[in-house]
Amino acid sequence: MSLMEHGAVRPVTAVAWTSNSSTCPKDFTLISITEDGATANFTRSFAMKSGYYLCYSKDLKGGMVVSDIQLISDKDSIPHGYCFIAEHLEAKASVWKKKRVCVRMVPVGSVDTAVLDIKVTAKSKMMLQHYTYVGDVHGYVLWCRKGHFSNPMPQAKPRSMSLDLRQLSIDQPVAPLPLRPSNPPPPLLNNKLSQRRHSLHNKDTGDKSADGSIPGLTALDGVPFSLHPKFDIQANSTALQLNSQLNNIRIKSLQDIKNEYNYTFAVEESAAKRIRPSVPAEGVPSAQ
């Protein structure tokens, strides 16, 4: 069984007209010879110096595939979901307009079958096995093969290995290196508070985990929690006493706090505004 029957082929992603190999777009395959050995030039007129050929692409970068190909007359309207194929021709070249080739483009992830190959024959009596007849175009017959296609899986980008990983061996295991913080703490200041923090830091190093990381400790860890005796229901005789005490608590508003603790600095302002006595200069009698 061939690879095409297994579905291990890429689908056709674009079809176009081209004048020759120089005007054929990149990543396109030019159909220059028919299956029965004739030239696949669709121009039969001797007055035409430039011909036109069919070409197709299987580049999946665009994310679209050709699911169907049809030939329609120039008087017929294009079917829904189809579009005319592109033309990459020379300046004086033109395509036979009585019949137009149109294709249906769909996203690659929306279908599992698509057009896998396109062939051209010069004799309408010749039949191609496993191919579907599309139609006659200017004395040529267009065929296409449909089937399941294989969507290539994206390849992972190679990662650069460090020197330490290259030196790893199964026979001689290497001990893991200690972890180093990327942002070390600032240098300690020469005062009592910094020395105390330094001593506490040295004591905490004994509680580090095996991987070198410091567990999340807070200042309240290890401190027992208890209520004040006057708010403890069990310490008092009844809960009514607690309620009466709580009711006596006055919740002050922001304005009450400002009124109670407001200080106008009037004494300081009056002291600053006092006129300082002037000192008389030597030899000049002071004014009485």
From TrEMBL:
Compartments where located: Cytoplasm; Late endosome membrane
Domain MABP: 9-148
Keyword Signal assigned: no
Gene Ontology biological-process entries: endosome to lysosome transport via multivesicular body sorting pathway; protein transport; receptor catabolic process; regulation of epidermal growth factor receptor signaling pathway; viral budding; virus maturation
Entry keyword set: Cytoplasm, Endosome, Membrane, Protein transport, SH3-binding, Transport
GO cellular component: cytosol; ESCRT I complex; late endosome membrane
Predominant cellular place of this UniProt entry's protein: cytoplasm
Membrane topology value: Peripheral membrane protein
Keyword Glycoprotein: no
InterPro entries per record: MABP (IPR023341), MVB12A (IPR040335), MVB12A/B (IPR018798), UMA (IPR023340)
Domain (UMA): residue spans on this chain: 220-272
GO MF, one example: SH3 domain binding
PANTHER family: MULTIVESICULAR BODY SUBUNIT 12A
Function: Component of the ESCRT-I complex, a regulator of vesicular trafficking process. Required for the sorting of endocytic ubiquitinated cargos into multivesicular bodies.
Protein family according to the UniProt entry: Belongs to the MVB12 family.
Protein name as catalogued: Multivesicular body subunit 12A
Protein's organism: Dissostichus eleginoides
Biological classification of the source: Eukaryota, Metazoa, Chordata, Craniata, Vertebrata
